[in-house]
Amino acid sequence: MRMINKVLIVAAAVSLAGITGCAGSGGGSATTPPPASSTASGPSADASAPAGEATITIRDFAFEVPASVKPGVMVTVTNADSAPHTLTAKSEGGFDVEVQAGGTVVFEAPQDPAEYGITCTFHPQMSGTLVVR
């Protein structure tokens, strides 16, 4: 019987090590953002973005907005700060997206050409203008 107990203890230890190893490797990769999202919104996005895309970067509690975007274009908003922000149209019926610290979101620009005042509802001192034309 002592041999059976040793075998069971070893089997249990191996099983536990396998389960712990799987949980450790899966948990780390699930919380790490995919590298493609950080490179897709690189620093050259404003000048060289394809016609159907635009990028707004939030850095140092300020919006870095391209000179203009086309109506209906998909706009990528990247938050380079350590605090969450929103990109909210000051006029009603516009857009309102929340971007977690270090996060990225995508939204569709308005279809109507206009100048849209923008602000962060968390930090009202942050403001700017998104020109759609």
What distinguishing features does this structure have?
30% helix, 133 residues, globular, 32% strand, 3 helices, 4-stranded mixed sheet, single chain, alpha+beta, 4-stranded antiparallel sheet
Task: Report a brief summary of the structure.
The chain is of the alpha+beta class.
Q: What secondary-structure arrangement, pairings included, does this model have?
A:
Blueprint: H1 2-31, H2 35-40, H3 45-48, E1 53-59, E2 62-64, E3 74-79, E4 85-89, E5 96-99, E6 104-108, E7 114-119, E8 127-132
Parallel strand pairs: 1-3
Antiparallel strand pairs: 1-2, 3-6, 4-5, 4-7, 7-8
Class derived from helix and strand content:
alpha+beta
Spatial ordering of strands, largest sheet: 2-1-3-6
Into which percent range does the helicity of residues fall?
A: 25-40%
Mean pLDDT: 75
Number of strands: 8
Low-confidence stretches: 12-50
Question: What's the total helix number?
Answer: 3
Radius of gyration from CA coordinates: 23 Å
Task: Explain the overall architecture.
A hairpin with a 6-residue loop joins strand 4 and strand 5. A four-stranded mixed beta sheet has the order 2-1-3-6, with no helix packed on it. The radius of gyration is 23 Å and the shape is globular. It has 133 residues and is of the alpha+beta class. The chain is built from three helices and eight strands. About 29% of the residues have low confidence. Helix content is 30%, strand content 32%.
